Every structure is written in C-alpha cells, then in structure tokens.
Amino acid sequence: MIFKLNLRGAILVAAAVTGLVTLTSPARADRCDDSAKELANQIDRLKVNFRAGNIVYLTHPSAKELSVGCRGDKYSIELYAKGDRKPTPEFFALVGSMAAIVFTVTKDDTTTGATRCLKRMGLLRGDKITMRYRRLNMDCTRTKTDASIAITRGKDE
Q1: Engineering a disulfide at 79: which of 48, 64, 151, 156 sits with its beta carbon 3.0 to 4.6 angstroms away?
Q2: pLDDT digit string, tens, across residues 75-110
Q3: 64, 110, 50, 29 alpha-carbon torsion, rounded to 10°
C-alpha cells in the first residue's frame, strides 16, 4: 500500500515538473517565419502569401515572385526574387531592402550587389551570372521574359 502511494506521488510530481517546464520554455518560431514577418512589417505593400516546406512565399507589386527559404544543403537562408527582364529601380530597391533585413547587412551594400549582378547579364557575359559581394552569394539568371536573383549566405559565415 505504501509503495503504491509513493509511485502515485512520484508520477504526480513528474507531471507537475513537466507542466512547469513546458510553460516556462519560450515558444521557438522558425527563422523563415520570423524573417518573413519582419519583412512584411518593414516593407510597404509586401505581404506573406503562404508557406510550403522550408520556403515562405511573399507578394509585392513590383516583383513577379518572392520567397525566403531556410536550411538548404549549403546555405542557412536564401532570398529569391523574380522580376521583369529589364528590372525597374523599384525592383532593385525592393531586393536591396529585403536582403538588408534578412542578412543584416546595410541596405546600400545589398542594393549595390543586387544591381551589379542583375545588370551584368547581357550579350557579353551571358544570361547566368554568379558573383560574391559582401559575403553574400548572388546568382542571377535571365530568360526571354524575366530576370531573377537568388541571394544566399553560406552556413559557415
């Protein structure tokens, strides 16, 4: 009889401790969700669309496609943007401000890097440019109708 009482008491104490631990530990959100919410709060007319896997899709009037992706094989976070074949200054400003928020780099540096990458594509250099600017990897691609940029930072940086 005494053994059952001690076992019941131990179970109650364990349940109480487990309950307290779950109440006191803060809820951890995903880095992609945090980045997407921060982007939506700080950039005008940017809206979080939906999440699929490790990618959060966003919408903005000056871009055809926008997304923030997390945890790839060689990168910790990725920013992808697609616009017209001849990007507008609004598109450059959007990509620069998004990259500045996501990668915590100054807006001038990210805007300069994105502009250089997107403007290098052409007849002499081709339709695919890969460059590195301020510890950010930038991959720019152009098709007949649109141009896109993917900005990543390696896991080791």
Answers
A1: 151
A2: 778 899 999 999 999 999 999 999 999 888 999 999
A3: 180
DSSP 8-state assignment for residue 126: B
Q: pTM value?
A: 0.76
| Dihedral (CA of 143, 145, 149, 150) sign | negative
Beta bridge partners of 137: 132, 152
Residue 20: pLDDT above 70? no
What is the chain's Cα-based Rg? Answer: 23
DSSP string for residues in 107-123: HHHHHHHHHHHHHH-BT
As given in the structure block, the two tokens for residue 63 are: 């871009």
pLDDT at 9: 67
**Helices 107-120 & 89-103, crossing angle to 10 degrees?**
130
User: Would you tell me how many other CB atoms lie within 10 Å of the CB of residue 133?
Assistant: 16
